[in-house]
Amino acid sequence: MQVLYCWRCKMDLPMLDEAEWEQVGPLFLHAAVDGRPVPLGERITANRDAALDAYERLTGFRETNAEALWHHRIFLYGPPCPACRKPLRTPQARYCPACGWSSY
């Protein structure tokens, strides 16, 4: 776990590393209710509380939006911006929308 700026949430939040994501992600991907598989479109709702509880257990932060967990992964972000130190939006990014820095 590492605290990084989330450009979607516009605040510093705990981000999961891949080992931690392995404990949260499967709660969405392999959902079942009462032993019956849950259709893909309903899986986030089906295991919302379990995923949020796992995130809180790992990070100590109580997230209220299960959809946000999908983008609270270190893997998805780039290196820190050389100017403002906020993470770039992707590993391939060459522009920082937070401060306007560009490597072009």
Layout of strands and helices, then pairs:
Blueprint: E1 2-6, E2 11-15, H1 18-29, E3 32-33, E4 36-37, H2 43-46, H3 48-59
Antiparallel strand pairs: 1-2, 3-4
Kindly summarize this structure in a few lines.
The chain has 104 residues and is an alpha+beta fold. It has helices at residues 18-29, 43-46, 48-59; strands at residues 2-6, 11-15, 32-33, 36-37.
Description:
The protein is of the alpha+beta class. It has one domain (2-76). The protein is 27% helix and 13% strand. The protein has 3 helices and 4 strands, in the order E-E-H-E-E-H-H. The chain has helices at residues 18-29, 43-46, 48-59, and strands at residues 2-6, 11-15, 32-33, 36-37. Strands 1-2 form a two-stranded antiparallel sheet. Helix 1 runs antiparallel to helix 3. The longest helix is centred in the first third of the chain and has 12 residues, at 18-29. The radius of gyration is 16 Å and the shape is elongated.
Largest sheet: 2 strands, antiparallel
Instruction: Report the C-alpha radius of gyration, rounded.
Output: 16 Å
Count of separate structural domains: 1
* SSE series: EEHEEHH
Beta-sheet strand percentage? Answer: 5-15%
State the secondary-structure class.
alpha+beta
Distance between the termini: 31 Å
* Helix percent band: 25-40%
Could you give the order of strands across the largest sheet? Answer: 1-2
- Count of extended strands: 4
Count of individual helical segments = 3
- Which descriptor suits the 3D outline? elongated
Low-confidence stretches: none
Output mean pLDDT: 87
